[in-house]
From TrEMBL:
Name the record gives this protein: O-acetylhomoserine (Thiol)-lyase
Pfam families from the UniProt entry: Cys_Met_Meta_PP
Keywords: Pyridoxal phosphate, Transferase
Organism: Pedobacter steynii
Record-linked InterPro entries: Cys/Met-Metab_PyrdxlP-dep_enz (IPR000277), OAc-hSer/O-AcSer_sulfhydrylase (IPR006235), PyrdxlP-dep_Trfase (IPR015424), PyrdxlP-dep_Trfase_major (IPR015421), PyrdxlP-dep_Trfase_small (IPR015422)
SUPFAM superfamilies noted in UniProt: PLP-dependent transferases
Cofactor dependency: pyridoxal 5'-phosphate
Protein family (similarity comment): Belongs to the trans-sulfuration enzymes family.
Length: 414
């Protein structure tokens, strides 16, 4: 595998490096649940990590391996484990690496379900502090003797706060903490967390990497920067058998994927793999649509606020400019008092009222009433989520049609 070629070229030609049968240009969908060996020693060697191979598909198969290799190359890491969803990747990675009474410092602006699973882990004995990740000082102040990990997202969803990624990376390096970065909102096309010294990178493959709203998936990539030899929670058998740089990702594959069981299906892996071929093209278009639309909404008299890192009035605009290739496809906005956000959404005809993000189609959702409903008003206020907030995942439609749809919706309230 080589990283010498460009981003898209590398993705497009990576399946052929595995030499699929008959010169197929895609890695085929391997449906087999199990693999047979003529000489049983072959099976024994796979179980004992002496040779690479497949035994039972819960731990991986050639179709998921091909996708994992692609994600590894996109993130310029050393290895990736794929999961059935982004949430499975997050929950399984924490399960695989943490012990009760370990401490995690996490962003207070986490994706709602991530925040929720963190609460489950607190209930099970992990200590987790939620702090404002736009300010590295707050991360530093939360540090304790038993801190093992820092978990942040690049751009938060829905209010688009940008984490102080570089300064947090320096701090994690100094304190030898696992630095886990959820790169879903930016994707490796806009940003590679390895450049800010991330140890582990999470991607919800469901979003920009798959990109078409037709398959769920998730992944965790080891960047190769973390020294697993200094990490106390590696199981003795993995310490003995696995070379140092692969110990963390091996423990994630065994305790997270194999034991947790959140396996990506080969069919979904294939859909995501094909979708990923056009990520650069899709994101360029979605990001330029988003920038135009954000500017249009920002100056509209019926809008009270737009949350988008590409706007100069965004609190982390300069940080986002320095870190990311573009500003992403996701924004949120609030309407002026007197315009009901649910009524407004019903006036949009092209934009789909729907959850999800990173689809080719533009999707809109009222945040407080749906994805952040369970949290309650108090936590929403803490996370900076007003009741009238609408989240928009901008797709790749023609921009005039998107502006037209919003213009028509606004005119219903004149
Ligand atoms: C969607 C999302 C997830 C979860 O991914 P699923 O594939 O839906 O499980 C995690 N983190 C972020 C930032 C997300 O947007």
């Amino acid at each position: 595998m080589t990283n010498k070629k460009g981003f898209t070229t590398t993705i497009l030609h990576s399946d052929r490096l595995l030499k699929p049968e008959f010169g197929a240009i895609h890695q085929p969908v391997h449906n087999a649940v199990t693999w047979g060996y003529d000489d049983v020693q072959g099976l024994v060697d796979v179980f004992q990590n002496k040779t690479k191979g497949y035994a039972y598909s819960r731990q991986g198969n050639p179709t998921t391996t091909a996708l994992e290799n692609k994600v590894t190359q996109m993130e310029q890491g050393i290895a990736t484990v794929s999961f059935s969803t982004g949430m499975a990747a997050i929950s399984s990675t924490i399960l695989a690496l943490m012990k009760s009474s370990d401490h995690i410092i996490a962003s207070s602006y986490l994706f709602g379900n991530t925040r929720s699973v963190m609460q489950t882990y607190i209930d099970m004995g992990l200590e987790i502090s939620f702090v404002d990740s736009t300010d590295a000082e707050q991360i530093k102040n939360a540090y304790r003797e038993n801190t093992k990990m820092v978990f942040v997202e690049t751009i938060a969803n829905p209010a688009t706060q940008v984490s102080d990624l570089e300064a947090i990376g320096d701090f994690c390096e100094e304190k030898k903490l696992i630095y886990m970065v959820d790169n879903t909102m930016t994707s490796p096309y806009l940003f590679r967390p390895v450049v800010v010294k991330a140890s582990l990178v999470i991607n919800s493959l469901t979003k920009y990497i798959g990109g078409h709203g037709n398959a769920l998936g998730g992944s965790v990539t080891d960047t190769g920067l973390f020294n697993w030899l200094g990490f106390p929670n590696i199981a003795p058998i993995i310490r003995e058998q696995i070379r140092p740089e692969m110990q963390g990702i091996t423990q994630i594959r065994k305790r997270g994927l194999r034991d947790g069981g959140g396996t990506l299906s080969p069919e979904a892996a294939h859909s995501i793999s094909v979708g990923s071929e056009t990520i650069a093209l899709r994101l360029e278009r979605a990001c330029s649509n988003a920038l135009v639309l954000a500017g249009f909404l920002d100056q509209h008299p019926m809008i009270s606020k737009v949350y988008y890192p590409g706007l100069k009035n965004h609190p982390q605009h300069e940080l986002a400019t320095s870190l990311f290739h573009r500003y992403g496809g996701l924004m949120s906005f609030t309407l002026v008092d007197g315009i009901d956000c649910l009524k407004f959404l019903n006036e949009l005809k092209l934009v789909i009222k729907s959850s999800n993000l990173g689809d080719t189609r533009t999707l809109a959702i009222p945040v407080a009433q749906t994805i952040f409903f369970e949290l309650g008003k108090e936590k929403r206020d803490e996370m900076g989520i007003p009741d009238s907030m609408i989240r928009l995942s901008v797709g790749i439609e023609d921009i005039d049609d998107l502006i037209g749809d919003f213009s028509t919706a606004f005119s219903a309230f004149n």
